[in-house]
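User: Can you fold this complex?
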Amino acid sequence: MFIYSIIVATLTSLLFLTQSLKKEAMDVFIEAPELIVQRMSAGRHDLIPVGYAEKILSIPGVSSVEPRYWGYYYDNLTGGNYTLIARNIDALHMVKGTLPKGPGECAIGKGVADVRLTDLNDVLFLSINPQQKVSLKVVGIFTADSAILTNDLVVMDKNDLVNFFALPKDMATDLIVHVSNASEVPTIAMKIRRDYPDTRPITRSEIVRTYENVFNWRGGMALTMFIGPLLAFAIFAWDKATGMSAGERQEIGILKAIGWETTDVLKLKFWEGMAISLTSFLTGSILAYIHVFYFGAALFAPVLKGWSVLFPPFNPIPYIDLYQIFVIFFLTVIPYLASTIIPSWKAAVTDPDTVMRS
Amino acid sequence: MAYPTPTTITAITAPSAIIAVEGVSKIFNAGEADEMRALDGVTLSVAKGSMAVLKGPSGSGKTTILGIIGCMTRPTSGKVMVNGKDVAKLPEHFLTDIRRRTFGFIFQHFNLIKGITVKENIMLPLYPTSIPIHEMKERADAILESLNIYQKRNYHVEKLSGGEKQRVSIARALINNPEIILADEPTSHLDTKLSEDLMDRLSRLNGEGKTIVIATHDPLVYDKPYVNRIIEMRDGKVIGT
Amino acid sequence: MIKSKIFFSFIAIEIIVIAFLYTDANHTIAARNAEVQSKRELVRKLSLTDFAVFTEARYTRHPSQADTFSAFQDFPSSMDHFPAGSIVGPQRGNN
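Assistant: Here's the predicted assembly.
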């Protein structure tokens, strides 16, 4: 029963975590750019000429186009990958301090602040080579509860970023296209591709879909984690089904001999199995809830974390999907019941006099 | 399934015979290499209210015939009358019913269920019935008192001594208030004193009007003066009554 | 039957705990609504597209922006040796 609870807890933890992350992704990326235009070169994501913006802007339905400057920085010092973004925005709720107002300033994610032991007003020094380096004063740190979005960010002034990465003049990382009517996004994406065959437009729905896939219970996560416990459970159930002990068989024989019918025996076994699986299921679900929502899925984090140096602490919002709980219920309780009842039935239909011959 | 219709049939199934077995054979694993003929044309009868002993060495078929009389298994051929009903061909459901109402079993190995208490073991035969739970408890308590194990009622059976287990298995056999008590080698795991004790109890039950059939090869059982019928068996056949 | 009483009380306690957790969940969702709103603001103003969960390599950082074969970006036959690769499936249909 302990093993059973643990298996249920593992499966349910996984469901809770993925469901929560998925729901959160759906909730927040609804505000992601409607359309992002990347340029592809030799099959790779490449820098895009800012000049493309003019022609895209002329497509009916496009309300504005703005270049986005961002890139990755591998920090030799800490082994972390930072995401550098250039945005000039006024204020945000989830930041302690302010956002960069001009060159020489930056706002960093909690993760970056932690690994670099940097606090407000300290200086963050980044360097790729002796020519490409920058010193930035930390004017803001993103709050811990935003870490899932901001943990590895370094937000800085556009000129600092362009110089640091030595981006060619009039080139941006990609373009954000704002569309006034969301239903026109696919048409506009198509038109952009036609005008600039070397581009790849990514729509918001594709972004959202990515997260639907990543944190889907049938997705990649399932392959790594869901299948494991499920197989373990199958083995466990199979073991029970095939390995009915002589003692259990004897018990059934005794019950039959003293006047129980096959159906009485099956009823007993059914309720016995039901009691065990219900208790285990409830216990497992409670453990899973505590594990995921009070302890931030501490047992799964190392797996998800992989080799990341900057890993946001999970503090998932408890979005519970009852449908998924039913799925778990049927995936665990029903096979267990079947695996206890079928062998009992086999034993119960035999003549009870076998108990007299042991 | 043809069996001879002897002229004695009326005598065998006379009202006084609560059990009548006629030409019963039992073949285990029929048609296979390890085919075993456990019973070969057994005919016997036990009068109501008697105390009968099935006597014979191990392998003589005593346990098999006891199982057949007790409706736990069916004969390969032959006729088994219990209380005037031919049970050999009744469907499973009726057999269970007869088992529950008519018979109380005392097994060689006690066959108590581990992990539950003495009282729960004793009440087991009553669970499938419609008897209300408080009455089940009253009955169990009464029997426990009469067998002098009331103080152990909440013990788990694996904590009991051999004699206590024997008394629990008697209590379980009695809870249905059966007409017939079947006992399979009941003394084989008991010392002399406990065996005597058991026989005392069985003879007292016999005095209360219960029919008792004991399969044994223990002289301590079949030499008792109150045993009024001895059926001797050997190699699946009745060799003397 | 003492055992059945224990069992039913245990089940009852578990159901109470679950009911409590469920209300706790709803409560937390309501309480953290402001947080979700702030995160939306973050996403909107910083034009973010991805969770900062898989930061181990640059090609895992933005799953929604990645190329189909970005695992081989660093040099030919550079295998995808990060665990995120086993979690994030390849992008389809937007190349």
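Chain A has a mean pLDDT of 83. The two ends of chain A are 29 Å apart (CA to CA).
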